[in-house]
Write a structure and sequence with these properties.
- The protein is mainly beta and 610 residues long.
- The chain is built from 3 helices and 50 strands.
- The strands form 13 sheets. Strands 1-20-19-18-17 form a 5-stranded mixed β-sheet, with no helix packed on it. A 5-stranded antiparallel β-sheet has the order 31-30-32-29-34, with helices on one face.
- It is elongated and about 110 Å long.
Length: 610
């Protein structure tokens, strides 16, 4: 037996137009006020550098799964985003791999398409290994759900004749009278949801109860419905599904146990697709922006007043290259450099540290979320393509001035630039600094190292170039005591670096030189004292001897056993006070100093002037 539930489309968006900084408009979207309305605040789930993120599943702990595109953009591959760590998965030999389910234990599931065009289930187990799963007797298997209670998989299986049947665990079934049945998810009570296609080719949703009875889910008065797919059901019976009518966009709905139906649409999005409803009532899925990018999202249920407060949206257009941007709305979750880069599709974001009067940068390879994004503040972002998207949130309450919309620069100059990267060679780099010098302009920028990451940023707010193709940038690392901790490295700026406004580098062997070397003393000439820098590639006993022009040793400096490293600063270099072995000050003239280890010896010249 089965029962039919007939529901109606709800169209409830209205728009107000408000003058914004005399140049731009803010669109205010509000939900229907009828009793029982579902209200949410929305948070974009984006991965910096990833323009296609189809989020299809979530756990009850804020972890996500779905599929994205390979680095070359040619292939769709699965991903998980667990504890903030984004990991991609590609079943060997597949044409594409998709995840559609994620358990609270971190197990993901979905299906892949093999080289012959056939689909097989795939499970990412707790050890991070991909394993194939085929429903018994099926020619093709599609997995869409996984039970947290039993670990049972659900989806649909296609037999050799091409007939699709829904399955949940070991159970396989057809909706009565259907020509095809597609299973998706099962809740703790054993209610299975999915979709079926009737003899007339029409799509319907269904709920299958544990006793074998069915309930049909329909959207009536839409004769040109192309498809309807039910994706999820919670333990209390909240259902999520998506449907598309001919000549219309794809739409998503939440069906409450009371029978009330609500369309879900993120303000400013082209389409919004709900893929999962969690036990706490939160929803997850994905949405498209006007520039063709796809983002994940999470919606948190709130009362209508809070939902309305955060339902404002502001449309933003960024031109290819560098843009000045002030974020116009506050999101429910405080925005950081990472989240701004994700939603804007930027390669870098630069902020002004007003207190220290310097620029600070953040790039997608940073190990942290970066600096907070605040209202009334300007940020420099670089985008590889034109971007059209919307910020969603509430008016700022802490801004010192009305947030400005993007200021578009028509100049082709690279007026902001970041040199970023990671240090290798030690376990910790707290207090270290990286100094970058442009040999053409002789300008320098400095960045503090956080963990092993640094981002040295510079900008000219008059939009004049700060770097050009062919510039040579010298980079070295300074330790906590002001000592040099690396060889000086040189990097050449290329057109690709300018396009991204970022030069990404790796600095290895920090704190350990690749060769022994005696360096020039400083100051030179000197009176009465000087410092003699050197570097050791391996642990060794060392000594420094001072000679006059006749070759006579006038002073020996026994430095003992030294660890491999750079000895450049006054706190670490060898020190000579200009006196001989008897404590007498030596006369003006040329002297020689020699560094000696059991395996190395080098001599240099210095000058005393009185």
């Amino acid at each position: 037996m089965h029962t039919r539930i007939r529901t109606n489309f709800l169209f409830y968006t209205f728009t107000l137009f408000i003058c914004f900084n005399a140049f731009f408009l803010m669109n205010i979207a509000a939900q229907d006020t009828e009793s029982g309305s579902t209200n949410y605040t929305y948070e974009t789930i984006a991965v910096p550098g990833v323009d296609f993120l189809e989020l299809t599943a979530s756990s009850d702990f804020g972890d996500y799964a779905g599929y994205t595109k390979s680095a070359d953009g040619e292939k769709e591959i699965g991903f998980t985003l667990i504890n903030g760590v984004f990991t991609t998965y590609d079943f060997p030999g597949s044409q594409k791999t998709h995840f559609f389910a994620l358990g609270n234990n971190g197990v993901a599931a979905g299906h892949y398409k093999d080289s012959d065009g056939l689909y097989h289930g795939v499970v990412l187990d707790e050890n991070g290994e991909l394993k194939q799963y085929d429903f018994p007797g099926a020619a093709q298997t599609f997995i869409y759900g996984i039970s947290d209670e039993t670990g049972a998989l659900s989806g649909n299986a296609v037999d050799e004749a091409g007939v699709s049947r829904a399955f949940s665990g070991d159970l396989s079934f057809m909706f009565p009278g259907a020509v095809a049945t597609y299973g998706d998810f099962v809740n703790a009570a054993g209610v299975v949801v999915g979709s079926y296609r009737d003899a007339d080719g029409m799509f319907h949703g269904f709920m299958r109860n544990p006793d074998g009875s069915f309930i049909t889910i329909d959207v009536p008065n839409v004769p040109n419905l192309e498809f309807l797919f039910v994706n999820t059901i919670t333990d209390v019976g909240v259902v999520g599904f998506r449907a598309k009518a001919e000549n219309d966009i794809l739409r998503s709905y939440i069906l409450l146990p009371s029978g009330d139906l609500h369309e879900i649409r993120i303000p400013g999005s082209v389409i919004t697709v709900v893929r999962n409803v969690n036990q706490d009532g939160s929803i997850v899925g994905f949405y498209d922006t006007a520039d063709g990018r796809r983002h994940g999202f999470a919606g948190t249920p709130v009362d209508k007043a809070v939902s309305d407060h955060f339902s404002n949206h502001f449309n933003v257009s960024l031109t290819k290259g560098l843009n000045m941007l002030s974020v116009p709305l506050a999101s429910p979750t405080p925005m950081t450099a990472k989240s701004l880069v994700g939603i804007a599709g930027a390669t870098v974001v630069i902020a002004l540290d007003a207190e220290n009067q310097r620029f600070i940068g953040w790039t997608p390879d940073a190990p942290n979320d970066g600096f907070p994004i605040e209202g009334g503040q300007g940020y420099i972002v670089n985008v590889p393509q034109t971007r059209n998207f919307a910020f969603v949130g509430a008016p700022w309450t802490n801004q010192t001035e009305i947030a400005a919309a993007p200021a578009i620069s028509k100049a082709q100059e690279t007026w902001a630039f970041v040199v970023s990267g990671h240090l290798e060679g030690k376990s910790a780099f707290d207090g270290y600094q990286v100094i970058v010098r442009n040999l053409r302009t002789n300008s320098t920028i400095t960045a503090a190292v956080q963990g092993d990451y640094f981002a040295a940023a510079t900008a000219d707010l008059t939009r004049r170039s700060v770097v050009q193709v062919g510039d040579i940038l010298e980079v070295h690392v300074i330790g906590t005591d002001g000592n040099f901790e690396s060889q000086t490295r040189s990097f050449k700026v290329t057109p690709a670096h300018l396009a991204n406004a970022v030069l990404s580098i790796k600095l290895d062997s920090i704190g350990k030189p690749n060769q022994n070397q005696l360096l020039q003393n400083y100051p030179n000439p000197f009176n009465p004292e000087t410092w003699i820098p050197y570097q050791l590639s391996q642990d060794s006993p060392i000594s420094v001897s001072i000679y006059d022009t006749t070759g006579k040793v006038i002073r020996s400096l026994s430095l003992g056993f030294q660890s491999a490293g750079f000895y450049n600063s006054q706190g670490r270099a060898a020190y000579w006070d200009g006196r001989n072995a008897l404590g007498e000050r030596v006369s003006s003239g040329v002297y020689f100093y020699q560094l000696t280890t059991p395996a190395f010896q080098q001599t240099r010249r210095m000058l005393i002037l009185k």
